[in-house]
Amino acid sequence: MRLAVISDVHGNLPALEAVVADIKKRQVDSTVNLGDCVTSPLWPKETFEALQSLRLPTVRGNHDRWIEEFPEDKLSSAGRFARNALTSEQRQTLHNLPSRINLGEDGILACHGTPDDDSTCLLEESLDDGRFVPARRDILNERLENATNARVVLCGHSHRQSVIHGPRECVILNPGSVGCPVFADITFATSLEYRSPHARYAILTKRGTSWQVELLALDYDWASASARALANGRPEWAKALSLGCVE
């Protein structure tokens, strides 16, 4: 069984198209989307429509929820851009997505952040200066206490591609972000580590009773995404998309 895992597309249509094209070449059985589908100053509506046409099992991300729930003054500028780009029906469709999905009989649990909280990173802790570091074992155990039957946990949210062997020999996979290497609306984005502008996803393969993970980082036309952000008045997003960091 081969499962492609995507997350955090954030309205980046050319990055999504590059990932979908690559997945088609790799003979996967299915694909799951871990949420945060459209929020960005890029192509929210077009990305929503592209994802709808793919009919993927999709988890609701925190931004998919926020653009429907939050008042205007609580949304980030990217959230307001996405809200205005979508119809009320499209926003409601995102809001109605499940917060977690159990995939088949292999013990695979898909969520966005943690199994119980879409706005908390599963594999990372945030320091006082905003930087992410790997979560301590006791914290990770606590975050997974309601997922004791899961043999594999798929998570996104941090945009950091990683795989670990966690508690109870559980494989935990974050495929990274398809379309947003650094979320430029957060106030501490300049303090994050250097990343890269590649479109990221992962493939999970079951071999007998064990799991193999491929972490993929694809070249795509990130200059067009950067230009789109700049045209929409977001130079910090343009830099993040073209460099993988906000300086």
Quick structural summary:
With about 250 residues, the protein is α/β, with parallel strands linked by helices. The protein has helices spanning about 15-25, 45-55, 60-70, 75-85, 90-95, 135-145, 220-230, 235-245, and strands spanning about 1-5, 30-35, 100-105, 110, 125, 130-135, 150-155, 160-165, 170-175, 200-205, 210-220. A hairpin with a 5-residue loop joins strand 8 (about 160-165) and strand 9 (about 170-175).
How far apart lie the N and C ends? 41 Å
CATH H-level superfamily? Metallo-dependent phosphatases
Q: What structural class results from the helix and strand content?
A: alpha/beta
Order of helices and strands: EHEHHHHEEEEHEEEEEHH
β-strand number = 11
Task: Report strand %.
Answer: 15-25%
| Rg measurement, Å | 17 Å
Architecture, according to CATH?
Answer: 4-Layer Sandwich
Gross geometry? globular
- CATH fold naming: Purple Acid Phosphatase, chain A, domain 2
Low-confidence stretches: none
Q: What quaternary form is this? A: single chain
Q: Which bin fits the share of residues in helices?
A: 25-40%
Counting H and I runs of at least 4 residues, what is the number of helices? Answer: 8
- Domains (count): 1
Global mean pLDDT: 95
CATH class category: Alpha Beta
Biggest sheet overview = 5 strands, mixed
Describe this structure in words.
The protein has 247 residues and is an alpha/beta fold. The protein has eight helices and eleven strands. A hairpin with a 2-residue loop joins strand 10 and strand 11. Helix 3 packs across helix 4, helix 3 packs across helix 5 and helix 7 packs antiparallel against helix 8. The longest helix has 13 residues. The radius of gyration is 17 Å and the shape is globular.
